[in-house]
Amino acid sequence: MKKSPASRNPSSTSPDSHPRASAEVELKLLASPAAIERIRAATVITQHARNRGVVRRLEAVYYDTPDRTLSRHRSSLRVRRNGTRYVQTLKIDCAKQSPFVRQQWETPVDTQVPDLTRLPAKINAFLSKLDKGGLTPVFATKIRRQARRLTFNGSEIEIAFDEGMVEVGERQEPLAEIELELKAGEASVLYDVGIQLLDVAPFRINTLSKADQGYSLAFDAVPQATKAEDSNINAKLCVDDAIAMLMSAGQRHLLANQAIVEDGRDPEGVHQTRVALRRLRTVCSLLRKEVPTPAFHAFGCEAKWLMQVLGPARDWDVFVTTTLARLEEACASDVDFTGLRRAAEPHRIASYTMLREALMDPRYTRFQLSLRRWIERRNWRTEVPSQALETLTEPVSALAGRVLTRLHCKALREGAHFERLRIEERHDLRITLKKLRYAAEFFLPIFARHPSAKYYVAQLSKLQDALGHANDSAAMRSLLVSLTEQAEVTPDVHRAVGALIGWSARDRLAVAKSLRRHWRKFKIAREFWRD
């Protein structure tokens, strides 16, 4: 993926011409100072470097409108001074392509004030509303960059070690990261180099740009949780393309919520991360029956490991932020739940500590790098038995029909005696229905014109949500055991626990009626993919 000459050499673009967009493929890494020094001396760098390194001092000012239009559209606009030259850069998130790709436009300007007339007028609809008067400086960065060019497996990479500050008025925050940027060749080599560096010293993938860090300092902005994107699978695609799109979407969803999980202030981050992992595991589970590559099993196991780490954090989040809030609304005002909430908070904090440790574990980083490299190279083509290669070329609609039929029949079989299901049997049904729901959402665009397609997904979603509510009630009971086993539990906490147990018993009766109703509606929902 080569950049246009204009983007590689901004000074070659005349002020009267509009630059063409280029795709910036970049892997950002965070590591301790000791790890950074070991990475500088890594064999993969010293053996493949084309130069001894260039040191530059880069000063940039980032601009936005008063209502942060650019930030809200996951974009950034900066003017960077390098020596006597000024270059303005507009970057726009390209999540549909890859979590490590952004679209960018670069052009020289005369001063450290942006000039939007030098950018294409129709980059995005919102750009036409911006003008010089509507842009103000938000923050600045001062960076010392040591950069080296590497030639690796026929591709060119720039590795940059950045150290410096982000500044907002009198406030400052240190910046330190390693950037691997593809200059020419195949994107997969970035992840080859990343994996080799991980063998030298531990690091983690940085999902926040310098602009993100600047906005965080300027406005104390909490990273935003990201829901799964709508599927863009269509009937014209073959199975090979669908595999790449589904696995990429799962990884994008996962990485998009990493920063908010690390921040810890919004429980929606953990929830969306669990959803991302479930969807990724579902893709692996569904596809390995059709395309038997060992990678689906391996990636599924890594996703399961991370889900197990996430489980306690999600349970305590639901308990503290949802269950107790619902109980306070439902119960008499003379029951005080303050002590119960206070007793639960240390458990919640401990669960987040374990989660952050997992995200800093090289195992997690290796999983992300290996998954991205596997997707970029479409390695499943060489891993499957020869008799399965034909499946890769068939229309994705044929695969969708087989997958949905198999899961639908399995759900009906497991729920045949719905009202008499034991707890473990209901759990198995819940897992099957989750897979069916995700599969239906993945393939929905293929059948979008069918009048009953959205109705089927809606009924399935309601049934799964009701089962999830019942599961939350069961999880709550195990949390209460943890709380009451503490050495010091006040009478107020015991009273709140008693109220919670009583309310939960009544709630289960209501949920049971709701479940039966949703199950009946699901059973008669039309199998839209068979028409």
Shape: globular
The share of residues in extended strands comes to 15-25%
Provide the residue-averaged pLDDT: 89
- In which order are the strands of the major sheet placed? 1-5-4-3-2-6-7-8
Span between N and C termini? 42 Å
Number of E-type strands:
9
Write the CATH architecture name of the largest domain.
Beta Barrel
Low-confidence region ranges? 1-16
What is the helix tally?
Answer: 18
Please state the CA-atom Rg, rounded to the nearest Å: 26 Å
Instruction: List the domain count as a whole number.
Output: 3
Write up what this structure looks like:
This protein is α+β, with helices and mostly antiparallel strands. The radius of gyration is 26 Å and the shape is globular. The protein is built from 18 helices and 9 strands. An 8-stranded antiparallel beta barrel has the order 1-5-4-3-2-6-7-8. The chain has helices at residues 5-8, 33-40, 43-46, 69-72, 188-198, 210-219, 239-256, 258-263, 268-290, 294-330, 338-360, 362-377, 380-383, 389-393, 396-414, 423-443, 453-484, 491-524; strands spanning 22-30, 54-64, 75-82, 85-93, 101-109, 136-152, 155-168, 171-184, 204-205. Helices cover 53% and strands 18% of the residues. Strand 7 (155-168) and strand 8 form a beta hairpin. The protein folds into 3 domains: 5-219, Hypothetical Protein Pfu-838710-001; 237-394, CHAD domain (Alpha solenoid); 395-531, CHAD domain. Mean pLDDT is 89; it is low at 1-16.
